[in-house]
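For the sake of transparency, this paper describes our internal protein records without simplification. Such a record has a labelled line for the sequence and another for the backbone structure tokens. Nothing more is needed to write down the fold, since each code stands for a local backbone conformation. For reference, a complete record is included directly beneath this paragraph.
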Amino acid sequence: MESLRINGDDEGSKRHESAERPTVRRKKSAPKMPAFLTSAPGKVIVYGEHAVVYGKAAMAAAISLRSYLLVTTLSKLQRTITLRFPDINMEHSWMIDDLPWSTFAHPSKKKNYFDLVDKLDPKLVEAMQPHLSVVSPKASPADKKIHQSAASAFLYLFLSLGSKNFPGCIYTLRSTIPIGAGLGSSASISVCLSSAMLLQVRTLSGPHPDQPADEAELQIERINRWAFVGEMCIHGNPSGVDNTVATRGKAVVFKRGDYSSPPTVTPIGNFPELPLILINTRRPRSTAIEVAKVAALKELYPAITQPILEAIDKVTESAHELVLSSAFDPKDDRSVRKLGDLMSINQGLLTALGVSHPKLDRIRELIDSRELGWTKLTGAGGGGCAITLLNSSASPSALLSLDEKLASEGFDKYEMTLGGAGVGVLLPAVLHDGSEDEGGEEIDQESFLNANGIEGVEKLVGVGVDADEKGERWKFWSNVQGKQEFIEV
């Protein structure tokens, strides 16, 4: 603490003031947190769709399409929080002092950052409603629902983890994940929000190379728990699988035998990074309709349908055993082919259940005819997306031919990596050039908002930049077989 000296600096003046006036002490304020970014991946279902509804196993893996959240702290006089999501044309600001702090901070309601929250508190949800109903009042009903769902996850986490003394901030989201395509975009966003707010209240440290494995695991789970709260705000009764993949990365096997309890989720920390193509049919799909189709088929032909579901379960089990095997080598074509063959078998079984679609079949035909890899639907089917595991011998000319054909037939194609990193942070939001000079490329609100499309966003945040070119790199928490892995991009 330092004294505030008033008028004069000679000894006599100091003694006189000391005798006549009390010493005034100024409280030191916490330094303003620098702007920073958090990021989390989307996901695909690799094996096990529909069988998982009947208590069988399914496998989901992270993809390199990601969401990014830039957090900028404002001056003390700016008492607002703003949520910006330009990819869905959403922006809204709230006065911090007007939010329902008395309800969220009540001793019977207040949650600590380390608490397990497995359901939303109806009183807290009710207290937020006046602050959600004013979001995007002129948007269409469909857009308004999406905007207010995102705002509900944001406000519930902010009010649960923050306080009335929280500084004003701008939270800007950009996502390279197609929204509404069953790729876990909402979970990715929830993980970004959870990790950012936990960083702001200083309950996360690292990630860093010397971080103990148990500490890293604790922090991963803390992020995941609060991301699940965000998912409950958006979806009501989520499985928890999407946010787990978005937090941990790599892949998980999950099974839900009893719908009154959460699924069993087994992380696969050594899941390999593999080249993947995702193709969006752009045909809207309904999970409820496709699930109902399988249920009706099972009721009519139980003796036929049940073995198909069990066979899908065996496919997932075989894939899990394969990647855990000491003989598995992701650089060996034979190992990759086995994974691909299991994808093809899975697709055939899903087609037998009636959940494919002519557009999905057309995508598979285009890829098979060029011998590019192994293709299956991902998610509920009936439209939506297909994924292709590329083989190492895929020729550039065949890939170019595929691009042209897909575009001419109205499909959207995304090149990505399967099985990548989970939640990460760039703090501060500066990509240094690797030289000894200080400074670097600062990622500010203007440049982040104006980044054009997937390529613009990824270029700005440093995706694909060689580690030697950037002194400051993204850092990710990743617990691999009980050992903390420090990943640099």
